[in-house]
Amino acid sequence: MKLILSRKGMDSTAGGMASPILPDGTLLSLPIPDNDSRLKYSDTIYDGKSYAEIIQELKPNFAFNECNFCHLDPDIREDISHPKNWKPAFGQRSTSAIFLDNQGVGVGDVFLFYGWFRQTEYDSNGKLRYVRGAKDLHIIYGYMQVGSIVNGDDIKSYDWHPHSKWSDKTNRLYIPTNELSFANGTKGYGILKYDKRNTLTKEGYSRSRWDMPECFNSSVKIAGCGDCFKDGYFQSPSRGQEIVFDVNDSIMEWIKKIVL
User: Fold this and answer.
1) Do residues 234 and 228 make contact, with C-beta atoms less than 8 angstroms apart?
2) Distance (Å, whole) CA 29 – CA 198
3) What is the C-alpha separation between 92 and 111, in angstroms, rounded?
4) Global pTM?
5) Please, are residues 107 and 88 in contact by the beta-carbon 8 Å criterion?
6) 26 in Cβ contact with 128 (< 8 Å)
7) Is residue 76 packed enough to be buried (19+ CB in 10 Å), middle (13-18) or exposed (0-12)?
């Protein structure tokens, strides 16, 4: 089995803002802008409020005039607005897909999705704002164990997903298992709440410097990171979306502590 740490959601170049840790601990990953998408930020609703409204409250100068559309991927959150025929899916294509292929990523492997988050609170008018002085953090907010891989014309049946617009050979969708192979009764995909256990950023460090347990050491095959182990922290890559690890027993226990 392989573990893939996959960076998703807005970042400093795509969207230019942190996704919110909502006051109740919800990790609401904000999708990146995408002018080729058919889905508007205003069409995606969470808890009675659109993503456009949430973004406007947190960043009033967000450039909606440049892009009103978003790339919602991975699409694994059940508690937002979806079409009736919705199914959870995660898309990859081009160099990112080829990289995963070269690492042998496939059915049975586990994606942990992480992104840039910051704590928020409600102001006196009930609008969201970032907590003053809140730290920028990399946090694991979701997971998926791969149950099947869809490519070719079959992707067109997932017409709500942003990858349904592409037809090149590298385009594919990863579809989750019904339940986790290592935890009977637990869905093969899901969204996590904010917790220290799924916070990657090491306390007192910048968000890209992580506190990885001893089981992630130089004896474990790592792809997409190079020499990431530094003196006292793990340096996540500034480029690329995925880091792939071969899973040993200790890493599997770490995955379980985060997901379960």
Assistant:
1) yes
2) 14
3) 12
4) 0.97
5) no
6) no
7) buried
Taking phi first (over 0 means left), then psi (-120 to 50 degrees means alpha), and beta for anything else, what does residue 84 get? alpha
Q: Which residue has the tokens 């690329």?
A: 240
Rounded Cα–Cα distance for residues 180 and 256 (Å):
10
Retrieve residue 253's tokens.
Answer: 């226990």
Looking at residue 8, its amino acid is K
How does pLDDT run across 4-62, given as a tens digit for each residue? 999 999 999 999 999 999 999 999 999 999 999 999 999 999 999 999 999 999 999 99
Show the tokens assigned to 47.
């808890």
Distance CA 74, CA 254 (A): 22
Cβ neighbourhood burial of 74 (10 Å; 0-12, 13-18, 19+): buried
Nearest C-alpha neighbor of 198 from the set 137, 130, 119, 136 = 137
What are 169-205's pLDDT values in tens digits? Answer: 999 999 999 999 999 999 999 999 999 999 999 999 9
**What are phi and psi for residue 164, nearest 5 degrees?**
-70, -15
Structure tokens at 103: 């690492």
Q: Which domain holds residue 84?
A: 2-259
- 133 neighbors 36 (Cβ within 8 angstroms): no
* DSSP H or E stretch at residue 176: strand 172-176
6 CB neighbour count, 10 Å cutoff: 23
Sign of the alpha-carbon torsion through 102, 103, 109, 112: negative
* CA angle (14, 19, 23) in 5-degree steps: 170
Structurally, the chain folds into a number of domains equal to: 1
Question: Look-up: residue for tokens 């409250």?
Answer: 57
